């Protein structure tokens, strides 16, 4: 079974002044198979749980299964290691040129993508760093590409973006960042937008947590687009980790009252200061935090298969698709 959602409904979009920038108009329909939806919903819940530190449901505290961890909410993670699929470690497309570049002081990856089958070889850089701009521009020149966009996944805290410097050195290049970041750029994107370069394109997905404006750029779905798809996650998801989320809540004033979405112990309210001092999970180093989360042995949420698909359509699952 496939579920059809308008991209606006899917991403809970407000009207977007940058729509002219999108390749696909907002009325286009995104086709999501129920298995993809399953995957999206589980990852969404996992990330919400991770970022907001909220147990997934009351049932999550029920008797543990020995191998159940937060990650095991992903059905893939339940497979024994020996049964893990051997996926490709790089994508292929007759059109796409892809390079992963590294800046060692901040351990930052910059990604270069270009449509080399297009006469102009239009290219974009994701998360360029000021210190490596010359290297990146020199590579782009060597490869005969035309840089059109310098894109950020978010407002970085550990390095200066290369986009400003790139614009002074290559005046035709447009900078892009999410509208939700509140940063300056030539173009602003939000969930559901697409960024075309030649016949290829990136999709924008909102992945806030590390910062409010964090987005993930995903390579397009369709003929000639990269297979497998590639997602540039910024700091939302790191390999075997994720970006810190303390920037969000713990930068609020100490007396800020915190009202969570759940409580399983009878508490009703807390403050930033209290949680900084006494939260038994967050007042720990990262390794201890990971172990605590792993050892929670959270069970598969009872309602997840019903709740998430329904909530993805605002609880209107029984209403004809046209009305949603
Ligand atoms: N030591 C580095 C910053 C390290 C750091 O905090 N990294 C961030 C992403 S850049 S703001 C992060 O989220 N790390 C998560 C993790 O698991 O390491 C510096 O001082 O710049």
From TrEMBL:
<dbReference type="GO" id="GO:0070813">
    <property type="term" value="P:hydrogen sulfide metabolic process"/>
</dbReference>
<dbReference type="GO" id="GO:0050313">
    <property type="term" value="F:sulfur dioxygenase activity"/>
</dbReference>
<protein>
    <recommendedName>
        <fullName>persulfide dioxygenase</fullName>
        <ecNumber>1.13.11.18</ecNumber>
    </recommendedName>
</protein>
<keyword id="KW-0223">Dioxygenase</keyword>
<dbReference type="InterPro" id="IPR051682">
    <property type="entry name" value="Mito_Persulfide_Diox"/>
</dbReference>
<dbReference type="Pfam" id="PF00753">
    <property type="entry name" value="Lactamase_B"/>
</dbReference>
<keyword id="KW-0560">Oxidoreductase</keyword>
<dbReference type="InterPro" id="IPR044528">
    <property type="entry name" value="POD-like_MBL-fold"/>
</dbReference>
<keyword id="KW-0809">Transit peptide</keyword>
<keyword id="KW-0479">Metal-binding</keyword>
<dbReference type="InterPro" id="IPR001279">
    <property type="entry name" value="Metallo-B-lactamas"/>
</dbReference>
<feature type="domain" description="Metallo-beta-lactamase">
    <location>
        <begin position="107"/>
        <end position="262"/>
    </location>
</feature>
<keyword id="KW-0408">Iron</keyword>
<dbReference type="GO" id="GO:0006749">
    <property type="term" value="P:glutathione metabolic process"/>
</dbReference>
<dbReference type="GO" id="GO:0046872">
    <property type="term" value="F:metal ion binding"/>
</dbReference>
<dbReference type="GO" id="GO:0005739">
    <property type="term" value="C:mitochondrion"/>
</dbReference>
<keyword id="KW-0496">Mitochondrion</keyword>
<keyword id="KW-0007">Acetylation</keyword>
<dbReference type="InterPro" id="IPR036866">
    <property type="entry name" value="RibonucZ/Hydroxyglut_hydro"/>
</dbReference>
<comment type="similarity">
    <text>Belongs to the metallo-beta-lactamase superfamily. Glyoxalase II family.</text>
</comment>
């Amino acid at each position: 079974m496939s579920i059809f959602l308008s991209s606006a409904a899917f991403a809970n979009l407000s009207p977007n002044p940058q729509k002219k920038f999108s390749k696909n108009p907002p009325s286009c329909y995104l086709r999501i198979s129920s298995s993809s939806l399953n995957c999206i919903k589980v990852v969404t819940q996992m990330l919400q749980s991770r970022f907001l530190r909220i147990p997934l449901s009351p049932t999550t505290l029920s008797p543990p299964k020995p191998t159940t961890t937060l990650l095991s909410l992903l059905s893939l993670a339940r497979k024994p290691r020996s049964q893990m699929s051997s996926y490709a470690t790089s994508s292929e497309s007759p059109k796409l040129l892809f390079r992963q570049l590294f800046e060692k002081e901040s351990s930052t990856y910059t990604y270069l993508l270009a449509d080399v089958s297009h006469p102009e070889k239009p290219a974009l850089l994701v998360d360029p760093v000021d210190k490596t701009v010359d290297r990146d521009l020199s590579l782009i020149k060597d490869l005969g590409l035309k840089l059109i966009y310098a894109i950020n996944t978010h407002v970085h805290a550990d390095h200066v973006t290369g986009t400003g410097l790139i614009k002074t050195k290559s005046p035709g290049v447009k900078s892009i960042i999410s509208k939700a970041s509140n940063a300056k750029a030539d173009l602003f994107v939000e969930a559901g937008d697409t960024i075309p370069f030649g016949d290829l394109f990136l999709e924008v997905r909102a992945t806030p947590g590390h910062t409010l404006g964090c987005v993930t750029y995903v390579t397009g779905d369709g003929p000639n687009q990269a297979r497998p798809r590639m997602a540039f996650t910024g700091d939302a998801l790191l390999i075997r980790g994720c970006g810190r989320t303390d920037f969000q809540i713990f930068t609020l004033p100490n007396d800020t009252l915190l009202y969570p979405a759940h409580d399983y112990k009878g508490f009703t309210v807390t403050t930033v200061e209290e949680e900084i001092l006494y939260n038994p999970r967050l007042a720990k180093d990262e390794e201890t935090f990971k172990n605590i989360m792993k050892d929670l042995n959270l069970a598969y949420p009872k309602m997840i298969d019903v709740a998430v698909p329904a909530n993805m359509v605002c609880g209107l699952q029984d209403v004809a698709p046209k009305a949603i």
